Each structure stands twice: as C-alpha cells, then as structure tokens.
Amino acid sequence: MKSTLFSVAALAAVAAAAPAKNNLLAIRQAAPAITDADILNYALTLEHLEDKFYREALVNFTESDFAAAGYDSTFYSNLKEISSDESTHVSFLTAALTKAGAKPVAECTYNFGVTDVKSFIATSSILEGVGVSAYLGAAADIMSKTYLTAAGSIVTVESRHSAYIRASLDESPFPSPFDVPLDYNEVYTLAAPFIVSCPSSNVPLLVKAFPTLTSSPDNPKNITVGTKITLLTPKVTVKAADGKSPIYAAFITVTGPVFTEATPVDGGFSLIVPSAPEGTAPIAGQSYVVLTGCNTTVTDDTVAAGPAILEISSTANSKE
Q1: Residue 239: what pLDDT?
Q2: Do 112 and 194 touch, CB atoms closer than 8 A?
Q3: pLDDT tens digit string along 254-285?
Q4: CB environment 100-115: b (16+ within 10 A), e (fewer)
Q5: 249 φ, ψ to 5°?
Q6: pTM of the predicted model over 0.85
Q7: Alpha-carbon 110 to chain mean position
C-alpha cells in the first residue's frame, strides 16, 4: 500500500500563514486565479459525466427494469427528463465556450460501477448532490454576470434533480436549509473515480484529486449528529510527523468547516459526527468530510484525504 506521511507540523505553518477568517470565500481567494473559461470547462467536465451517466443507464435499463425495482412509469419518464436536462447543459456550456473563443472539453470514458436499477438510483443521488455543491463552490469565482446567472439557473435545476432522486430513496428531499459548497479539488476528488480516461486533445483542468477517504461499510445505516463512525483511508497512511499530534475530521459547510478530533484505527480513523455551532449551517443531508492536521481552516494545502460522502439524518427526519 502506498504510504503518505502527513506532517501536522508543516500544516500548522500553513495554517498560521492563512487568513484568520475561517470561511470558504477566504479559501477560494487564496487559491490560484482561474478564468471563466476554466470554470466553464470544469462545469462541462461534470456535465459530460452526468449526461453520459443517464444516457448509459437509460440504454442499459428498460422501463420494465425500473418497474421490477419498484419505480413506476412516471419516475421513468422523469428520469428521461433529467437526462435531457443534462444533455442540454452540455450543449449550452459547449456553445458558451466556443462563443468565448475557448476550446470545450470533450466527453471522457467512464466506469460508473452501476450493476442494477437500485445502484443507479443511489449513484444518481450522489452525483446530483455533488453537482449542486460544485456549482455553488465555483460561483464566487465567476467574473461574468451573464455566466454567473446561467450557472445559477443550472444549479437550481440540479437541486431539483437532487431533491427528486432523494425522495425516491425515502430520504428528505431538502434535509438542510443550506447546500454545501465544495472547491474544485474536492469535487474532482469525488468525480475522478468514475473517469477512466479523457481525450488527449482536452485542455488540462487546473484540478487535482486528494487521496481517497470513504465511509466504512460497517458504519450505522442511520447516521446522525453524535453517531460514532469510521472513515477509511485505503490508499494512504495519514499520521502526524511527530506520531502524537491530533488528526481532525472537518465537515464542510457553507458557514465554514466543523472540526472534530479523529482517532486512528486499523485502516482509517474513528470519530463522532459533530454538531455545528449555533447560528451556523447544520451538518445534514449529503455531507462531506476531509481529514486534516489543522483545526482552524481547510485549504488545498491542509487536506490529507477526502472528501468522503456521508448521509447525515437530522434528528427530526431520522429513521430506525
């Protein structure tokens, strides 16, 4: 297994130099400047993935397959509408980039790991949630008011897709009063496992993938604030350079990360899902957590692994 030494001492120096204001806007401002064309190609990369995901599923699974899995004809028809929306998003972003004199990225080759209708719906819910977080996280960097408005009109549609799919899984369609913004590298980390290869002619994206962090299959089915869980680091060894400094799990929210100390266990870390401070965004619904050696900020320089995706039920909506 590849071993990566995670130096808390080095991250402490980074954190000390970072702005004291602990929010995602400050984090984005510290990142390298990117252009609107970069952002549109980033969005197009994600839309290509979603577009192919739905088109492939609607070829592989028939209306009868969905009916056998417990989904009626209305649901199947709405999936076709979602697929059409994603194709339209691809066409729009491609045209916008071309009009701006930039080269649009082409569709990649993917492996979604979908084997049946139920795994397709589960993956759909994850992808739609990540899509919302991707647009939300990139919004502050878009300079053109026209593009910003267009991105806003797309993210509201993606949010409706997400709510519809969540409801089909008997999950709350709107589990939190706030959605979660993710930065470019956090989103790419979640998308990269689905991407097998991309055309060599595609312009390179200014993104990187962090080491993988996953929720243990042994975690409780119903996770709420206060639940003890395990996060796995299958491809890295995350530890402090001095062997004793703490590692933290940081739950990303729109009002800033919420930290909790993570305890090393075999293959990863255990932790208690924290409660967000009063007056801030709650940790609920499709949530994202990273490992870090810093408990004051989350930046690309301080993330050791993740994000992992967790479904956090609110106390009001939790089910046995």
Answers
A1: 83
A2: yes
A3: 999 999 999 999 999 999 999 999 999 999 99
A4: eebebbebbebebebe
A5: -100, 130
A6: yes
A7: 17
How large is the angle between the packed helices 184-191 and 36-60, nearest 10 degrees?
20
Question: What is the pLDDT at residue 26?
Answer: 36
Distant-in-sequence contacts of 267-272, Cβ < 8 A, 24+ apart: 267/232, 267/233, 267/234, 268/213, 268/216, 268/230, 268/231, 268/232, 268/233, 269/230, 269/231, 269/233, 269/238, 270/228, 270/229, 270/230, 270/231, 271/228, 271/229, 271/231, 272/226, 272/227, 272/228, 272/229
Q: What is the pLDDT of residue 245?
A: 86
SS3 224: coil
* Separation of alpha carbons 159 and 149, rounded Å: 15
Closest CA to 239 of 247, 231, 248: 247
* C-alpha pair distances (Å), 297 with each of 11, 16, 29, 170, 181: 10, 10, 13, 34, 15
Peptide bond into 307 cis (omega under 30): yes
Alpha helix positions (H), 139-218: 145-168, 184-191
Q: How far apart are CA 123 and CA 126, in angstroms?
A: 5
From CA 67, how far away is CA 186, in angstroms rounded?
Answer: 36
> How does pLDDT run across 202-261, given as a tens digit for each residue?
999 889 999 999 999 999 999 999 999 999 999 888 987 677 889 999 999 999 999 999
Is 276 within 8 Å of 258 (Cβ atoms)? yes
Which CA distances in Å does 142 have to 82, 90, 102, 138?
25, 18, 15, 7
What is the signed CA dihedral for 72, 74, 75, 76, rounded to 10 degrees? Answer: 90
Q: How many helices (H) and strands (E) does the chain have?
A: 8, 9
CA distances from 109 to 49, 92, 104 (A): 9, 21, 16
Residues in the chain with pLDDT values less than 70: 1-32, 241, 315-320
pLDDT of amino acid 32: 53
